[in-house]
């Protein structure tokens, strides 16, 4: 899997699992446009890979991601002053939205390991994960409206993750909260009290994923994403076709045979 040089990301492969670590600790891993483009390249390479089953997103030095880098916004302001007809703010904001869509649609399982600051864009990435685990003292929030700007690209994913009522409160009032409240809202799935507990939770998720059919997981994600966008009977027809194709395919045949023979399927890690 070729992704080119990454200056703001650390990549580490372990079997079929790829760890992507945000590495801008001097700004609590806030995302600049270069980092967004690097992550976009990595996600596109992962999406095209049959070797990667899961992607683990986390931040270096105790923080996940503090949102967007304010320096990018200052530079955008300077570019607009030089060219009043341009709209660099649109381009900057929309680039992150494209990244969220890419992560959201990834065939592989996306796991977010959340520590320290989980703000703005970091909050948005958590909302497009399949599995989110966090430290109890992680700090979550949507600070954008306190800066006089909307959480434009993030808001739709927040609504889908935790519902409109709670999303309105978090975006408009802007409270900060920690792991237990993130669990109550449905933003995360598991909360750990310390680093050892966080590692244990992640290891349990990876162990479970090692025994899941990667193609079956990809098809399942695709079906779930289409709920609400297609009439239910049409969706169930598509699901039945997908089921038939899967059970007749090599992964499904081996999985059902292994179950009958009381052994692990050959594709299990």
From TrEMBL:
| Pfam family for this entry, one | ECH_1
InterPro entries (alphabetical):
ClpP/crotonase-like_dom_sf, Enoyl-CoA_hydra/iso, Enoyl-CoA_hydra_C, Enoyl-CoA_Hydratase/Isomerase
Q: Name one GO biological process term.
A: isoprenoid catabolic process
Q: Which domain of life is it from?
A: Bacteria
- GO terms assigned for molecular function: catalytic activity
Q: Which PANTHER family match?
A: ENOYL-COA HYDRATASE, POLYKETIDE BIOSYNTHESIS ENOYL-COA HYDRATASE PKSH-RELATED
- Family, as annotated: Belongs to the enoyl-CoA hydratase/isomerase family.
Q: What is this protein called?
A: Enoyl-CoA hydratase/isomerase family protein
- Origin species: Acanthopleuribacter pedis
Q: What is the lineage of its organism?
A: Bacteria, Pseudomonadati, Acidobacteriota, Holophagae, Acanthopleuribacterales
């Amino acid at each position: 899997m070729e992704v080119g040089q990454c200056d703001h990301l650390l990549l580490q492969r372990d079997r079929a699992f790829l760890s992507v670590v945000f590495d801008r600790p001097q700004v609590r891993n806030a995302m600049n446009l270069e980092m967004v483009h690097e992550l976009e390249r990595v996600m596109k390479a992962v999406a095209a890979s049959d070797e990667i089953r899961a992607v683990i997103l986390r931040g270096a030095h105790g923080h996940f991601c503090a949102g967007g880098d304010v320096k990018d916004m200052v530079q955008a302001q300077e570019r607009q002053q030089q060219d009043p007809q341009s709209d660099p703010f649109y381009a900057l904001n929309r680039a992150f939205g494209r990244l969220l869509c890419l992560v959201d649609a990834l065939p592989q399982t996306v796991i977010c390991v959340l520590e320290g600051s989980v703000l703005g864009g970091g909050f948005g990435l958590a909302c497009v994960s399949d599995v989110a685990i966090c430290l109890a003292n992680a700090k979550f929030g949507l600070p954008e409206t306190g800066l006089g700007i909307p959480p434009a690209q993030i808001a739709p994913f927040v609504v889908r993750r935790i519902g409109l009522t709670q999303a309105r409160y978090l975006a408009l009032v802007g409270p900060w909260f920690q792991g237990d409240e993130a669990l109550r809202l449905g933003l995360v799935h598991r909360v750990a009290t310390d680093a050892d507990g966080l590692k244990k939770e992640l290891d349990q998720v990876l162990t479970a994923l090692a025994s899941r059919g990667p193609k079956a997981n990809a098809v399942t994600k695709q079906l779930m994403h289409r709920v609400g966008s297609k009439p239910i009977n049409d969706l169930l027809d598509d699901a039945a076709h997908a089921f038939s194709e899967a059970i007749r395919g090599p992964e499904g045949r081996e999985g059902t045979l292994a179950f009958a023979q009381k052994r692990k399927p050959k594709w299990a890690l």
